[in-house]
């Protein structure tokens, strides 16, 4: 795909929704665009029926060629479906489950899968097809950001390349030989869904394939077993999948990072420019500009909004994950495989789901977001069971306090510690006697 011009790249990153749609129509499917489609019938749009679990193992069939494997290669097999479901039995349902009044779930939710969870307690409050496999689009950038925050120095300077500049879809505005800190790349990644920033960060992490591998390792560690990243940016590729449950799990982990929370909280932020293009005669320096968030909840000042991440591709449709704090309680909302329709804004749908979640009393749930695991020696996350075959709750597993013979790790430590103390005292006594004799 030809490189986008500077003006086109900024158009796709910072102007109105209508202009974004025009830009995407001209330059190809962006990883976050927010197209509006006509409502086919009067009244509230119908919500897709997923009761028969059409997406239990894989996302819906692709509508374009973005997931056709390169010549000589085959698409990866679908990920195993954990049994029992990660987070609780009720989350194995493919229809709607809620700890509240089902009648209060808003009409017109166009997402095939969605979820609302309490970020503090991990309680899943309500969901539809929570473990259904869907394409994440640019919401997967939260996973890339987690890896980058874990491994890269925020103040490291990265030099832009022609490959960054030529990335398909939306861009923050990286140019060849431009200089950007990792923090600025993360800001562009999360604020304007810069695929150029994703490419640059992947390079810093060791390259495209290495970065994708690290993203999948992070997902596995978090317990996100429906997730397989196939590109750093979220552009569709063979084998890509995640679920409403997994996105909530990933976003909850990201919210624990203060830098991530800061990055997603800004309505505006500056992004550097870059030098004249060497292959463009008489080109002039390209100045920096002020980025603007794509998150309408943040842009419109929705009460309590912390931040979030948008996404869109033709295959993934509209996706979103975000968090709102109200009266000391933080809820995460996830929407997947949806549509932003006339008179039925995706943002209004998010607000309706959040209102439903905040109406559910603390302590009620239909499942939980599991805690991060630290060792594959104690659990097999692909089956959802521990090494002993028992159902795995997702919490960190600790060694048994008793080996069956009356010994525990603590008694063994005390025993060997006592022996060690006797030996040390003996050596000290011997040294004192030798010292006396040497006088």
Tell me, what's the shape? Answer: globular
Alpha-carbon Rg, integer = 25 Å
Low-pLDDT residue intervals, each spanning 5 or more residues = 1-30, 374-425, 427-439
Count of beta strands: 15
What percentage of residues falls in helices of 4 or more residues? Answer: 25-40%
pLDDT average, as an integer? 82
Share in β-strands: 15-25%
Characterize the main sheet: 7 strands, antiparallel
Termini, distance in Å? 87 Å
What descriptive keywords fit this protein?
disordered N terminus, alpha+beta, two-stranded parallel ribbon, globular, seven-stranded antiparallel sheet, 439 residues, 15 strands, disordered C terminus
Verbal overview:
- This protein is 31% helix and 15% strand.
- The protein is α+β, with helices and mostly antiparallel strands.
- Strands 2, 3, 4, 9, 10, 11 and 13 form a 7-stranded antiparallel beta sheet that branches. The chain has a two-stranded parallel sheet with strand order 1-12.
- α3 (141-151) crosses α7, α3 (141-151) runs parallel beside α8 (244-255) and α6 (195-204) packs across α7 (208-222).
- The relative contact order is 0.17.
- Residues 1-30, 374-425 and 427-439 have low confidence and may be disordered.
């Amino acid at each position: 795909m030809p490189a986008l011009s500077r003006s086109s790249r900024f158009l796709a990153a910072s102007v109105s929704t209508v202009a974004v749609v025009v830009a995407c129509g001209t330059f190809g499917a962006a990883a976050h665009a927010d197209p509006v489609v006509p409502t086919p019938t009067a009244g509230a749009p119908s919500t897709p029926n997923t009761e028969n679990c059409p997406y239990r193992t894989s996302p819906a069939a692709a509508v374009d060629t973005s997931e056709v494997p390169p010549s000589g290669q085959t698409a990866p097999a679908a990920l195993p479906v954990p049994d029992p479901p990660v987070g609780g039995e009720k989350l194995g349902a493919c229809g709607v489950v809620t700890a509240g009044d089902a009648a209060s779930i808003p009409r017109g939710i166009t997402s095939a899968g969605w979820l609302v969870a309490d970020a503090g307690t991990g309680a899943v409050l309500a969901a539809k097809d929570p473990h259904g496999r869907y394409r994440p689009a640019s919401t997967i950038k939260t996973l890339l950001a987690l890896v980058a925050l874990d491994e890269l120095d925020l103040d490291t300077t990265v030099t832009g390349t022609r490959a960054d500049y030529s990335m398909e879809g939306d861009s923050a505005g990286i140019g060849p030989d431009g200089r950007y800190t990792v923090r600025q790349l993360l800001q562009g990644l999360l604020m304007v869904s810069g695929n150029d920033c994703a490419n640059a960060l992947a390079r810093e992490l060791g390259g495209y394939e290495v970065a994708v591998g690290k993203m999948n390792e992070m997902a596995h560690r978090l317990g996100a077993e429906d997730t397989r990243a196939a590109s750093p940016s979220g552009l569709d590729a063979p084998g890509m999948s995640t679920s409403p449950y997994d996105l909530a799990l990933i976003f909850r982990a990201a919210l624990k990072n203060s830098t991530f929370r800061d990055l997603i909280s800004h309505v505006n932020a500056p992004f550097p420019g870059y030098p004249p293009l060497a292959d463009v005669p008489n080109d002039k320096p390209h100045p920096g500009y002020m980025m603007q968030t794509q998150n309408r909840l943040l842009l419109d000042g929705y009460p309590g909004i912390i931040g979030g991440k948008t996404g869109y591709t033709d295959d993934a449709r509209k996706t979103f994950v975000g968090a709102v704090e109200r009266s000391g309680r933080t809820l995460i909302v996830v929407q997947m495989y949806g549509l932003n329709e006339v008179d039925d804004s995706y943002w209004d749908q998010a607000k309706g789901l959040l209102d439903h979640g905040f109406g559910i009393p603390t302590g009620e749930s239909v499942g939980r977001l599991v805690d991060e695991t630290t060792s594959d020696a104690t659990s097999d996350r692909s089956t959802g069971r521990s090494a002993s075959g028992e159902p795995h709750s997702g919490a960190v597993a600790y060694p048994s306090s008793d080996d069956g013979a009356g010994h525990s790790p603590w008694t063994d430590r005390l025993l060997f510690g006592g022996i060690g103390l006797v030996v040390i005292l003996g050596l000290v006594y011997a040294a004192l006697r030798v010292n006396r004799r040497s006088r």
